[in-house]
Automatic annotation (TrEMBL):
<feature type="transmembrane region" description="Helical">
    <location>
        <begin position="13"/>
        <end position="32"/>
    </location>
</feature>
<keyword id="KW-0812">Transmembrane</keyword>
<keyword id="KW-1133">Transmembrane helix</keyword>
<feature type="transmembrane region" description="Helical">
    <location>
        <begin position="277"/>
        <end position="297"/>
    </location>
</feature>
<feature type="domain" description="DUF4220">
    <location>
        <begin position="49"/>
        <end position="297"/>
    </location>
</feature>
<feature type="transmembrane region" description="Helical">
    <location>
        <begin position="141"/>
        <end position="162"/>
    </location>
</feature>
<feature type="transmembrane region" description="Helical">
    <location>
        <begin position="44"/>
        <end position="66"/>
    </location>
</feature>
<keyword id="KW-0472">Membrane</keyword>
<feature type="transmembrane region" description="Helical">
    <location>
        <begin position="240"/>
        <end position="261"/>
    </location>
</feature>
<protein>
    <recommendedName>
        <fullName>DUF4220 domain-containing protein</fullName>
    </recommendedName>
</protein>
<dbReference type="Pfam" id="PF13968">
    <property type="entry name" value="DUF4220"/>
</dbReference>
<dbReference type="InterPro" id="IPR025315">
    <property type="entry name" value="DUF4220"/>
</dbReference>
<feature type="transmembrane region" description="Helical">
    <location>
        <begin position="117"/>
        <end position="135"/>
    </location>
</feature>
Amino acid sequence: MAFTFILDLWNKWNIRGFVVLSLLLQVTLILFAPLRKKTMRRPIIFLLWLAYLMADSVATFAVGLISHNQGNSSAHVAEVNGTIQAFWVSFLLLHLGGRDTITAFSLEDHSLWQRHLLSLIFQVGAAIYVFVWIFSSDKSLVIPTILVFFAAFIKNVERLWAFYLSNLSRLREWEFLDDIFSYDLCGKLISVEDECFNEEEAKLDESTMVKHAYCFFQIFKIFVTNFIFTRQQRNMSCNYFYKVSAMDALRIISVELQFIYEVLHTKVLAIPSKWSYIFRFIAFIDIVMACILFNRLKKHRLP
C-alpha cells in the first residue's frame, strides 16, 4: 500500500517537482552567486557548488523525463497536460543557459566545453522530439513555446561560447595577442601620479581608479595562464604602486580581482560585440512575448 502511494505520488508530481526545484536552484544561484567572490567560508562555498551542479543536473534530468513520458504509453505517465510539458521543456533549456552571474564555478569547468556542447545537442534533440510529439495534436501553446525555445538556444550558445573563450588554452592565445597592450597608456598613468606612498587616504576618483585597474588587469591576467611578468611589466607595476597611496593600491587590486572573476566565472567574454547585444535583445523580446501570449491564453481550453 505504501509503495503504491509513493508510486502514485511520483507519477503525479515528478515533472512538477523537478521544474519547481530547477527554478528554485536558478533563483538561488542568481541571488547568492556574488558570494562566490566575497567569502572563503567552506559551508557557503560548498552550498554554492552543490547548487551549481544540481542546477544543470536537475534541468537535464527533467528534460529527459518529459521526453520519456511522451513516448511512454503506460497509464502511469504523469498527469500533466502535454502542451504545458512542452512549455516547461523550453524553460528548462533556458535555465541551463540563462545564468549570467555564475556561468562556471571553477576554472576546470571551461575545459569541459565540448561535453557541454554534446549535452546541449542531446537536450535540444529531446526538446524537438517533445515538440513534434505534442504539437502534432495540440497547437495551443506552440508560439510561446517556440519563442522561449529560441531564447533558450541563444542563451545556451552564449554560455558555450563563454566556456570556449575562458578555457586555459584560449586564454593563453588571448594573452599572446594582447601582449602589446597599451604600455604607453600605463606609462602615462604612472607619469601623471604624484608620489603619495606615505598617505593612507584614497586620492583617485572612481572613474580614474577603474581605468587604472583595467590597465593593470591586462598585465596581471598572465598569472591566470601560469605565465610570469616580463621585466618591463614588473618595473611598470612596481613604479606605479610605489607612487599611489596604500588605500588606492588596495582599491585598484580589488577592482582587478573583480575583472578576473568576471572573465573566469561569468559570460563577460561572450558579450563584447554588438551582435551579442542584438541576440540578447532578441532573447529578451522572445521571453516577454511568450509570457504575454501565455497570460492572454484562455487556460480552460487546455485539455
